[in-house]
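Continuing the series of single-chain predictions for the mutant panel. This is the parent chain; the variants come on the following pages.
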Amino acid sequence: MTLTLVTPPAAEPLSRADAKAFLRLEHDDEDTLVDTLIAAARLHVEAAIRRVLVSQTWRLTLDGWPPPSPGGRIVEMPLSPVISVDTVTVYDAEAVPAVLADTAYVADLSSWPARILMREGTAPVAPGAPIAGIEVVFTAGYGEASDVPAPIVQAIRLLVAHWYEIREPVAFGGPANPVPDTLAALLAPYRAVSL
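Parent structure:
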């Protein structure tokens, strides 16, 4: 299974202006640094809660279908929340793609993880290509930047401030500078857990 970002988010959940106001920065000298910290903080938060924040398109590549279950084969989506399943493509032995009809599968986007049920008899049991024979393109995220829950945006804001103020990962002769515990508290309700 391979996961590839196709279209990154159009905007960050925290704007540069908001971050600079929080940092009380009144000059433009460090705008590039602030932008980098915002992107890094978003990626850190996404990894911590196992969710993507602003809408982005991904491609999930599989070698073959998962084993059958009652009613069909279920493909679990590795990211959440999933907004839509855009295409399911199967490649034959000559690498010729065949996009499956929407009727060939049912997308359960409300579950975690989101799932696609491939209906029996509508999709080949195995792709013709020996590897990377199936591609699922999907859109994940909460929506626009303004749709990201406020506690998650606050966690990004605090992380940007932390990294801006403490630029060394460790203090020589002292303890490491860990991420503040406040972040864990803000992100706890959104953390995707596996049972």
